[in-house]
Amino acid sequence: MSGASVPITVGARILTADGYAVVTDLERHGVRLCFSTGEDRSVTYSQLQARAVGQDGAQALHSSLFPWWTQLEEAVRLEALFKQECVLEARTGFRYGLRELAQPGEPFHPFGDDFGLSLAARYRAMSKVITFERSVDRAVMRRVYDGELAGHRIAARTMQRWDSLWVSGGLRGLVDGRAIKGRQAFDIIDADFRRIALEKFAEYDGSKSRPNLQEIERQVRVALKNEGVTDPYLPDRITQEFLSHHWRATGSSVRAQRSKSLRRVAGHQSYPAQHPSELATDLTMANNFVLDPLRERAINVEVGVIHSIATRVIHGIRVFPRGARGIDVGLLVYDAMRQFAMVVDGTTIDDFRWCGIPESLDLDGNPVHIGRRPTVKRDLTIQGVHYLPGVAPTSLRSDHGSIFVGEHFRALLDQFGIELRLSRGKKPTDNPHSERKMEDLERAYQQVPGYKGRSIHQRGRFIGIEADEPLLTAEELERHFRRWVAVDYHRMPHDGLALPGAPGIRLTPLEMHDALADATGRILVPQHPDLLYQFLPTIWLTPGHAGVEHKNLTYDAPVLGDFRSVRKGTFRERDSAIPFHTDPRDLTRLWFRHPETDRIHEIPWKARHLIHAPLGDVVRDRALARIKERGGNRSINKTRIMRQIIDEIGELTTAPATDEWRNKLAAAQLRWEQSQRDHADVAEAHRVLEAGGSNVLRLPAAPRGDPVDPVDATGADLLGPDDEPWPDYRQMV
Hints:
Structural class: alpha+beta
Distance between the termini: 86 Å
Radius of gyration: 42 Å
């Protein structure tokens, strides 16, 4: 068969899946065809492809045969056409099924309806004719002599089977399935079926549960029927292969389907981070249960990580209760700004300690340095000091979670001049470094009790049962993460790190940090013991003679003595209120920054000594709601309100009523414990500074930008050779 196209004219022969057809008329947008089945209908030009065919064969092919027919071997096509000619001549009396295409002498006796014989009798006669023709065909007889064919005779019963196949499947039904096995492309499947199936597969992008393949096929067939397609060509084997192939391509799990769908919008190049201060952060559910010591049961927690994109250094890692808030992720930024050190002595490993006070100190064996110095250990041993470098962030990449776009977190970043770079909604591939960092934590998860696997199908029967596997508390899990970061992660070469001009060099995160720090210069934020309070929310309250009142709780301290009757406009123009820092994790105290000394002072709740339970904002709000249900302020005075709050907190602590409240109380306990540790770090820093007597940190009064004498009152040189003058901290507030 030649591939040269020829014009389609009246009388042209068309080969279709339903047999031969002849062009009876040329219309404006197509042709009128008369089929060998007796049907007469119009077909558009786009459904025809003209081809020159030898030996009076087809002059054009119908689109229903593409590309299936052209993919077949010529011998297979000729055999199918031979069978079709036998069937058509027996039925109609004409080899091509149409009187218009009659060959010389047709119709011959007894073929066709004109001679009045049954179809079975016609096939008996056709069997004799074909057997004789094959007996004088040397090519056929040579195959018989060579053993390729059992004989040259074709029985009438065989021809009747051809007739059944042609009636049910047309020309396709006459093609020997053994000849096309393993050679067919998916294009032979009905085009509408393929289109609907691909649309169905596209729906599974990780947002829908994954059904089995049989259900997908049922949905496709129903949709096909609803579109009016009642007789699609769907060979069983190739159709099942098509469905299986595309179903596997969507992903074997919901997570894989989600990843595949995101590849269409994912970037194809690495993020161009060149400075250690370009950070990324994310939170995820921890793959370990932890023990809630308050209720002695296993609970879930979240893990937050903040790290440098350019160096892969983890600058901060914390464990949060479920439902982390803006203040929680703000504390990750707080950790990133501070420099820590950990000491490994034999089998004893202490926790990370803040070593960023601008003075040479020694906190329980953790040496503190100033100036720029390497963070990588000089030797390869685990023993000794491990540093966790701090950095002044310039940008922060995060997802579009509410905690990152909330008012508190945005205001915090604006205060420090940090650019927030948000990922697009539901596009975690915009923050791939954080997503990958959570995968790195898998090594740390598996090293401690309570590991529950990545998903439900990996979870054991006794996970979370304290009697079978002692669990860590949230504080212990956080300490484990920090140790893992220091002695494992930061000491392992990272495949994502490379230095320009030095291909093939394997670098650890700390080595990359030191290399970039030499090029960028100072990257630490100015350290101060009271840095924490810049990360806490600010509330405005007006002190009275009894102290300040906030949410029915009264706070007071001697430092407020000079501010109980301040002049309007002293702190803000519209009233006499003054700013206080509040920590939602612990409402038993407020913090006040003295405008003259720039020191932070604790303002305790008057009744703090009467309770021994965590008092967070959730617990306080629940207690106030219970009081309101009992009559509120109208029925009792302020003193009784205070005592009732204490009673309610005690009741809520000892007898929570619902699982929901138990979870909230456990979260409050975890946040309260973290709050105690954070504020204890600040108190320890102040204690060490004040213990030095004349070495107490004194902030310069010179305006920002003026030169500052790097020598303190004792003559001790506190600045290293690479240090910059210490800035005026009061202008950072």
